[in-house]
Specification:
Layout: E1 2-6, H1 16-19, E2 27-30, H2 43-55, E3 59-64, H3 70-74, H4 79-95, E4 100-104, E5 115-119, E6 125-129, H5 131-135, H6 155-165, H7 170-191, E7 194-198, H8 216-225, E8 231-236, H9 237-240, H10 248-255, E9 259-264, E10 268-271, E11 274-276, H11 289-298, E12 304-307, H12 325-344
Helix pairs in contact: 4-7, 10-11, 11-12
The structure holds D-mannose.
Residues 64-65, 102-104, 110-111, 148, 198, 263, 309, 321 line the site of D-mannose.
Length: 346
Amino acid sequence: MEMTFRWYGDSDPVTLDKIRQIPGVTGIVTAIYDIPVGKVWDLDRIMALKKKINDSALAFKVIESVPVHEDIKTGDGNRDEYIENYCATLKNLAKAGVEVVCYNFMPVFDWTRSDLTFELPDGSNALIYVKEQVEAINPLTSDLSLPGWDAAYTKDGLKALLEKYQSITEEDLWGNLKYFLERVIKVAQEVKIKMAIHPDDPPWPIFGLPRIISSRDNLDRLLKLVDSPYNGLTLCSGSLGAAPSNDVPALIREFGDRIHFGHCRNIKITGQQSFEESSHRSDDGSLDMYEIMKAYHDIGFTGPIRPDHGRMIWGEQGRPGYGLYDRALGAVYLNGLWEAIDKENK
Ligand code: DNO
């Protein structure tokens, strides 16, 4: 297992110098954020990013994410061009030594919460999801914005896109994902990049949009769409674990050889389709992080893992979910679990 940490590039107040001081963190997970979705990432830009990260003595092997254009998800007009561009980006990333590419297939919105600064009893601020609150949000009029949401939409553009999805069923989305994977995995295999789809967060439909990467059966279906080791998963414990029907350690054991990237965080389920993002510690949430790390250890996982969202603690202000302190505590805690499990099993 290699402990990695997400970095949002030069605008991130959590700098590479800070990240390299977190005990046990050896690699960076990042992306190029200013290239519009669907365009090719130039090799020069990728190499400059790699150099910056390597100069801080950190590895550059994981990209999160190369976003998938909505035309691909809706199966619309320009999808072939965007798929070609996607493949060209993969080829360039491979030239720079990237081994894993994380992406998602969530229509329009990436991960979603109802409140980004909810105060927990200890005074820290957490991201939370309350079913009724999300159901009351109208994405066309709301100011809510999360890291990961494409900020490039105009109101009219967003409206048109949401309307287009009215006629797209879950089965249509599966068909469009298959079309994408049949073309992209061929190239990924050639250049040895492991594709790792991120599950839908939360793992149920929101704003009337279909969401399909959400359960054991759907992960199984996804892996069989193109049955190649390069068609794999980002196993996100906090996303899948928000549905109590998903047994995260069991998923790790079942899909082990197709998991290329682990997102490890805890959540506290507070009601039906409602949860708070707790600290990473098992006792603070609903997931048993020891069992999760043990499952990774038992399958002999050697890939990258990262702590996931953190609360805002010690007065820190920053990108929701992506401050320094609580994520650093998460990394150290996960490494501690790993060391103990490793020594017990020698
Ligand atoms: C949330 C992240 C997601 C993830 C994308 C992958 O914090 O885990 O935004 O990066 O869904 O494409």
